[in-house]
Amino acid sequence: MTDLAGRRAFVGGGANGIGASVVRRLVADGAQVFIADRDVLAAEALAQEVGASSACIDLSDYDQVKAFAGQPFDILVNCAGVDQHAFFTHTSVEEWNRLMAVNLYSVLNTTHLLLPAMQAGGHGRIVNIASEAGRMGSRGGAVYAASKGAVIAFTRSIARESARYGVTANVITPGPIDTPLLRQAVAEGGDRLLDAMCSSTLVGRLGTPDEVAAAVSFLVSREAAYITGEVLGVSGGMGCGQ
Q1: Among 62, 144, 165, 226, which one carries the catalytic annotation?
Q2: Domains of the chain
């Protein structure tokens, strides 16, 4: 178990799915965790369950994030995300803006507001949850893939800018993970879609949110101080060779 005693973590999009598993793992590791999410009921329930704190925040709104960024955090994990299931020519500008706002702008906002205190304190860990789609592309998810690819490029740039301050920044790119969001997509696409997702991995199965959370736990630990600017695929080998 990673020792995060005395560390304060801001988990964006931490109320459900991968984010909720990250919250549970960081609390178990000893961190004081703050959950930021638009799903206020789920965030409050999880906070009460694990002994964290929470607030209803639209992370794509800079001013809303700013209102809660007055206290320093050692750890920033961005998990907020929305998916896309349509060919690009069947999408609208409104859909593009929503995907970019949640998947990319939320990362820009939290980093811009929390990174200065990390740099001033000489220590920080940033982990952004992207997707293998950001490296491989995605049929039926072009804008989603673009937003996640941007998160990868942004995180690597922040790693370059922040290493001298003792701040690391890394990206995790999950493959198909068994979350409510994925199950909703499977319900719409049927068993063939689920089979296709599993066969796209080398291990032939869906991943679990806890497996992603375990990777986050390591990357925010003291033991990972020499790891920055990296893209870690937690995808059952889906991105092998990319």
Answers
A1: 144
A2: 8-175+211-234 (3.40.50.720)
| DSSP character string of 83-136 | ---S-GGG--HHHHHHHHIIIIIHHHHHHHHHHHHHHHHT-EEEEEE--THHHH
DSSP string, 50-72: HT-EEEE--TT-HHHHHTT-SS-
Q: Residues, the chain, total?
A: 242
62 is catalytic: no
**0.85 cut: is pTM over it?**
yes
* Residue 192 tokens, joined: 């063939």
Among 20-29, 72-81, 147-156, 230-239, where is mean pLDDT lowest?
230-239
Could you read off the pLDDT of 120-147 as tens digits, one per residue?
999 999 999 999 999 999 888 999 999 9
